[in-house]
């Protein structure tokens, strides 16, 4: 079993209070690792180290930073099996998904490293022959990253790779449920040659006080966060006091619209992939399925058949495609939404039940929910308004394009939306009409390292991925030179 300290100024160290906490496997309830439990004092140590490292790192050439990121990419990819297993043990997702996430996480490191070499400035024609206008990009400074448990590797690399590419040192606070993947990743970055103080890691069970300490410190100039809208709002308020740059990747409530002219089998496969990936615990999971009425029952039947075939269990076991939910609270929320829907008239056409023990999994502390499909769903049901974060697909029928786009937009979130149609003109109209940061047209899996990932409305601010992600860690300086 792994035991990790905090990583500060290039060294693994005890938390100031000397405390540790246990990490459990959500599929079994077993303890799979131990991590240091850091607090505000440790944040102070990490910020000081990062602050000291800032000029050193910022003054490395782009080429040197890119080389280190390239080596980090190669190390992550060559440790894909090990990282994937750690991830499944602490997070529960099926191994195949964990391996795919490690590659996705590595892709951000590779792409950001390449972008490091393309942080270009600009010259602008002046209004006077005696002046020169230069636009120069500089790293914003020390960056903090607070990440969730649903993607233990990629939510970290999506923040720290562009930060390092831009020349910013980082302090990472991973989710308390999934610190082991973060610790191993940090070891690999260190092995790749990231200098001391440039990456710091504070694992902790005290997220509110650790977060507040990071945000109160004026030396921290940027906060990158992925998590709930509720916590994102707290962080944005705290960031205001020292006017930090903020990037917030928050909740979502993705509509998945299937028009009658869609290729139904393909669309059904993609709904299943989008909805049930990570047991429904992603912010871009399809959360509302709108199906044109003329094909409604036929499509619902396809979904139910496919959902019933998904094998639920411990993600380490072969053929399992639905792992456990992260904890009891998550299962309570999913169960509550399903009960609310049933009480208000929904019909269960697949799944519908919660379990503690599945297959060979020995635990009673685990929380599973069957892949579930609901019909006769109405807008008054909680599931149509609030994020589910579980394997439940509620289906509602619609009759016109105008009606469904209106319904899709009628939500406080605006992260991802998907639709299936073969009509080109409609594809353009609907893609432009949806108030979402990410739109998949006949594509249920649009996320990729080079594209701008982020939401409209209460789904957040800023973008992660590609050149957009690097831009978030840069300041724009305008230099005016009078040559007279
Ligand atoms: P989730 O529902 O996915 O757990 P959270 O928003 O609660 O989402 O958590 C995302 C990350 O934010 C985790 O690393 C968690 O520890 C951290 N976090 C939770 N509450 C706070 C807070 N008040 N201040 C700073 N970080 C927090």
Give a structural overview.
This is Succinate semialdehyde dehydrogenase. This protein has 484 residues and is an alpha/beta fold. The chain has 2 domains: 2-250 and 459-481, 3-Layer(aba) Sandwich (Aldehyde Dehydrogenase, Chain A, domain 1), CATH 3.40.605.10; 254-448, 3-Layer(aba) Sandwich (Aldehyde Dehydrogenase, Chain A, domain 2), CATH 3.40.309. It contains 14 helices and 25 strands. It has helices at 40-58, 62-78, 80-91, 95-116, 154-166, 179-191, 207-216, 229-240, 264-276, 296-309, 328-343, 401-409, 424-433, 466-471, and strands spanning 2-4, 6-8, 11-13, 20-24, 31-36, 122-124, 131-139, 142-146, 170-173, 199-201, 220-226, 245-249, 254-258, 286-292, 347-350, 354-355, 368-369, 372-375, 392-398, 413-414, 416-420, 438-441, 456-457, 460-461, 474-482. Strands 15-18-19-14-13-21-22 form a 7-stranded mixed β-sheet, sandwiched between helices. It has a 6-stranded mixed β-sheet with strand order 10-9-8-11-12-24, sandwiched between helices. A 3-stranded mixed β-sheet has the order 1-5-4, covered by helices on one side. The N and C termini lie far apart (69 Å). The mean pLDDT is 97. The structure holds adenosine-5'-diphosphate (ADP). The site of adenosine-5'-diphosphate has 14 residues, from helix 7 and helix 8.
